[in-house]
């Protein structure tokens, strides 16, 4: 996913922050745009889904 984001936004600061509880969160400028556990059916994002949410 990091490569996917950097391919469109080469100057983006993409970092992995390890946590616990099985969550997967994508935060852009302090705003959560994707959270696995907040979905009705928890899942990881589909290919390009994060880029679509960032647009």
UniProtKB/TrEMBL annotation:
<dbReference type="InterPro" id="IPR036249">
    <property type="entry name" value="Thioredoxin-like_sf"/>
</dbReference>
<protein>
    <submittedName>
        <fullName>SelT/selW/selH selenoprotein domain</fullName>
    </submittedName>
</protein>
<dbReference type="Pfam" id="PF10262">
    <property type="entry name" value="Rdx"/>
</dbReference>
<keyword id="KW-0676">Redox-active center</keyword>
<dbReference type="InterPro" id="IPR011893">
    <property type="entry name" value="Selenoprotein_Rdx-typ"/>
</dbReference>
């Amino acid at each position: 996913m990091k490569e996917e984001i950097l391919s469109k936004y080469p100057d983006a600061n993409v970092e992995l922050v390890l946590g616990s509880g099985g969550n997967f969160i994508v935060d852009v400028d302090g705003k959560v745009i994707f959270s696995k556990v907040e979905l009705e059916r928890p899942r990881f994002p589909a290919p390009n889904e994060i880029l679509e949410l960032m647009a």
